[in-house]
Amino acid sequence: MSPQFKRGLILLTPLMVVVAMAFLFATTINRDSTLLPSVMINKPVPEFTLPAIEGIEDNSPGFSSADLVGEVTVVNVFASWCIPCRQEHPLLMDLAATSDIKIFGLNQKDAPENARQFLMELGNPYDGVGADTRGRVSIDWGVYGVPETFVINAQGIITYKQIGPLNEDSYRNGLLPAIEAAKNSDAPATSN
User: How remote is the C-alpha of 87 from its chain's centroid?
Assistant: First the structure.
């Protein structure tokens, strides 16, 4: 290669990087960031047992994979330090009050006293709350971050995953239809 060609290539490299980044940005600008695929959809829940969070007022038990078989259930991954978890919490309280679905809380990497305070302050929609203090169970579930919400059918198969906080739209048009689909069919529901 001639020195002029090398210099021209060196000068064009930043321009090529900018063009590549602009192309990448343009092709992803209208994508919904909550539509990350989950390898866990249509797979059985991982085997696990989580202890209860000590001192919760209503003595909510911990839970395990065995609790997620036999009926449609919802698992919500949350933490007291998670601001979006606080924002979605009223929707979980609504689900607990208006449906016969069992809801389980997977408390990720949280101090027990903080988790207790969170549930005392906002209410406890969960039939069981498991303490995942090291985050190992969350990793097995393929959790990207908190909050995340899963629907599990009666066979113990994950049929739906909501990444990020529930809002009115994702609750009404995502979670509730996914619960109904899991109740009414052995076929998997759609995933978010």
Answer: 14
Query: Dihedral sign, CA of 144, 146, 147, 148?
Result: positive
Would you say residue 30 has pLDDT above 60?
no
SS3 64: strand
Residue 34 is predicted with a pLDDT of 44
Q: DSSP labels for 116-185?
A: HHHHHHH----SEEEEETTSHHHHHHT--SS-EEEEE-TTSBEEEEEES---HHHIIIIIHHHHHHHHH-
Q: By three-state DSSP, how is residue 31 classified?
A: coil
pTM above the 0.85 mark?
no
Phi, psi of 6 (to 5 degrees): -60, -45
Is residue 25 within 8 Å of 40, Cβ to Cβ?
no
Q: How far apart are CA 121 and CA 37, in angstroms?
A: 33
Q: What 3-state DSSP class applies to 52?
A: strand
Angstrom CA distances, 175 to 22, 53, 160, 161, 166, stand at 35, 26, 8, 8, 8
